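> call design_seq(struct)
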């Protein structure tokens, strides 16, 4: 996150905040409502908001996040999953339920219809109701460039400092953007090293 690329990102982020392209004044709920009401032209979000957006704005589109430099922006990609508890009194029945019910195309399509999120099961993804949905096509295309979201304890160090640093830079506070960003990266590295 640091180094020359980090400094370039911080400079770009500061310019976006200064020009009002990105505003740290909106919380996730406030910007969602503002987008639905047509008060803001776009929102950076994820599949969890699609059902509400489609309901309010039938012609809503999903586009990739623009590059902040010469390299393509790549989202962190995650999936929702079902797990069987180690304390389950009947793990055989629980596994059977997940494998032979939840894991079927029929149920995956029902989950897709309920939440407008792309199904992980390829048979469901390839079903016309998903495959022909323009939003699902966009999400699939964007997701192909994504990076699996790290699911490790060290990520708490990243998230602890990342958001506040971006907000500070967007507001034009804390000094030179590149310095603020590098100090943030140094804190993240120190916390991760201390956790080892």
């Amino acid at each position: 996150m640091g180094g020359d690329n980090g400094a370039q990102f911080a400079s770009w982020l500061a310019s976006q905040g200064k020009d009002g392209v990105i505003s740290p004044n909106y919380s996730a709920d406030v910007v969602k409502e503002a987008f639905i009401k047509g008060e803001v032209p776009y929102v950076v979000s994820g599949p969890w908001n699609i059902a509400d957006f489609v309901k309010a704005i039938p012609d809503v589109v999903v586009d990739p996040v623009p590059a902040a430099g010469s390299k393509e922006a790549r989202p962190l990609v995650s999936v929702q999953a079902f797990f069987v508890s180690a304390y389950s009194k009947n793990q055989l029945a629980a596994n059977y339920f997940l494998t032979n019910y939840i894991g079927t195309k029929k149920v995956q399509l029902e989950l897709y219809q309920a939440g407008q999120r792309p199904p992980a099961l390829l048979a469901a993804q390839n079903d016309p109701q998903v495959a022909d949905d323009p939003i699902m096509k966009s999400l699939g295309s964007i997701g192909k460039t994504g990076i699996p979201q790290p699911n490790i304890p060290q990520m708490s160090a990243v998230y602890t400092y990342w958001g506040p640093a971006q907000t500070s830079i967007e507001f034009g506070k804390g000094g030179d953007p590149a310095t603020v960003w590098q100090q943030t990266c140094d804190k993240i590295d120190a916390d991760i090293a201390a956790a080892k």
